[in-house]
Amino acid sequence: MALKVCKFGGTSMADGNVMNRVKRIIESDDDRRLVVVSAPGKRYSDDIKVTDTLYKCHSELESTGSCGQTFSVIRRRFTGIVKELGIDLDIEYVLNETERRINEEKSVDFTASRGEYLCARVMAKLLDAKFIDAEEVIFFNENGTLDGEKSYAAICKAVEGELRCVIPGFYGCGADGKVKTFSRGGSDISGSVAARAVNASLYENWTDVSGFYVCDPRIVSTPKVIKSLSYKELRELSYMGASVLHSESIFPVRKANIPILIKNTFRPEDDGTLIQPSVYYKPSGRVITGIAGKKDFTVIFIEKSLMNSEIGFIRKVLSVLERYNIPIEHIPSGIDTMSLVIESSRLKNGVLENILQGIKEAVEPDVMRVTEDIALIATVGHGMSSSIGTSARLFKAMKEANINVKMIDQGSSELNIIVGVKNDECEKCINAIYREFFR
Ligand code: ADP
Ligand code: ASP
Ligand code: MG
Predict the structure, then answer these.
(1) Atom number in ligand 1 closest to CA 187
(2) Does 208 sit in the ligand 1 pocket, CB within 6 Å?
(3) What percent of the chain has pLDDT over 70?
(4) Which residue CA neighbors atom 7 of ligand 2 most closely?
(5) How many angstroms does the Cα of residue 243 sit away from the middle of ligand 3?
(6) Which entry of 23, 127, 274, 397 is 20 to 30 Å from 340 by CA?
(7) What whole-number distance in Å separates Cα of residue 417 and Cα of residue 427?
(8) How many CB atoms lie within 10 A of CB 31?
């Protein structure tokens, strides 16, 4: 029998009413046997996500020794949900145990993970399914990366012979035996790990939009939905800010060629977006697939005559960054120039000054300049490599919108063109590129 893994995001878990909707979706397909859930998200625009409240619980615990006051918000939320659903779950007991463990463990990851834990307990009861604690089936290595093989084996064993199971997303068990979370939005990764473990026919990711849009719907109003895209395009777009799917969620499914389908819990009849393994990718005829943007980068520009013929120049520059453990996003270069594009958050507390000093000592540049508050905008698509004049159209669109381009980097994969603009021109730039290629 085919087996589908379905992950439901925060808004799909927001209250009892939506959870009942999710139950209907799951029960309408017998293949939907492994369910991964996030913590309840926002019910209305200025509501607070359960995970954010839990991070607040941890701050309260750190400053006062107990999380009680903030935990009462979590208590009310889950008691309300269980009452609304009318399920037979002793939520008082589960909440008391959870609060006791939060106060005892004093760990930020443990506290943050409890939204998913509680939500999965509720959903398992609602679906009359087996609850599998992620702590017992998802494992991390010493260096914090996923221990895939150990996790896949444990998940397989836990689901064996079960009709339907629910696993909380977002967390697992660290190498020290303690609860550890993925980065924010990480339930998408948990879903992917589960899909890979059971060799699912499909990984369904249910959220609050009808698929992967060409660009962020909060920036461009009603952008077109992308019908299908490749893993590679997804990786580029999600890494560059298309937050609908966590950028690391393709890795577990990629090796097993499991497609991902983005679906809307609130409009299940909509087709959604199919993300396909690159091996199955067929040219769609379109020039670009999507546009995404991310703010707050710093560009370090370095100029030195005859840089190109100086053996080891780039290595010397990069070794300074390695010394400070700073990852580099892009390195656009010319004959006598190179730039380093780095996330600004990595350069706080004097790190930038130390790096500049280090580069000065290592290569004695003629000129070195720093530009802060840069946004990177990625225009992505397999179609770009075979169509002439794409960059000309892109830059014309930016010129017409009066946007000053601070940096250009065309990825060697010919899958993307990345431009750097001032942070406050990011939205304008995405709109301009969208208009040029899609309207
Ligand atoms: P979930 O809680 O279901 O995991 P997220 O909030 O993480 O949902 O992701 C869905 C949101 O991603 C959408 O509501 C939308 O605002 C945002 N988003 C950003 N870029 C895109 C995009 N290109 N296409 C669709 N949604 C996007
Ligand atoms: N609840 C977690 C977060 O808010 C994980 C997730 O939603 O995927 O980041
Ligand atoms: Mg998400």
Answers:
(1) 4
(2) yes
(3) 100
(4) 185
(5) 7
(6) 397
(7) 17
(8) 15
Whether the CB of 204 sits within 6 Å of ligand 1: no
Nearest to 255 by CA among 199, 209, 303, 323: 199
Q: What is the pLDDT of residue 1?
A: 67
CA of 416 to the centre of ligand 1 (A): 21
Q: Is the dihedral of CA 59, 63, 65, 68 positive or negative?
A: negative
Residue type, 379: T
Cβ proximity of 5 and 195 under 8 Å: yes
- Contact, 2 vs 198, CB < 8 A? no
Q: Is the CB of 119 under 6 A from ligand 1?
A: no
- Contact (CB, 8 A) for 425 and 390: no
pTM over 0.90: yes
What are the tokens at 158?
A: 């836990």
Tell me the longest C-alpha to C-alpha distance in the chain: 75
Task: Specify whether the CB–CB gap between 414 and 385 falls below 8 A.
Answer: yes
Percent of the chain with pLDDT over 90: 90
Asked whether 158 and 88 are in contact (CB, 8 A), the reply is: no
Helices (H), 255-370: 313-323, 351-363
Predicted local distance difference test score (pLDDT) of residue 66: 94
What one-letter code names the amino acid at 332? P
Contacts 24+ apart (CB under 8 A), 47-52: 47/14, 48/73, 49/10, 49/115, 50/10, 50/74, 50/77, 50/115, 50/118, 50/119, 51/10, 51/112, 51/115, 51/170, 51/184
Among the bound ligands, the one closest to the CA of 169? 2
Contacts for 387-393: CB closer than 8 Å, 24+ residues apart:
387/287, 390/287, 390/288, 390/417, 391/417, 393/436, 393/437
> What residues of the chain score a pLDDT lower than 70?
1
By the CB criterion, residues less than 5 angstroms from ion ligand 3 are 9, 185
CA-CA distance, 67 to 105, in Å (whole number)? 12
CA 74 to chain centre: 24
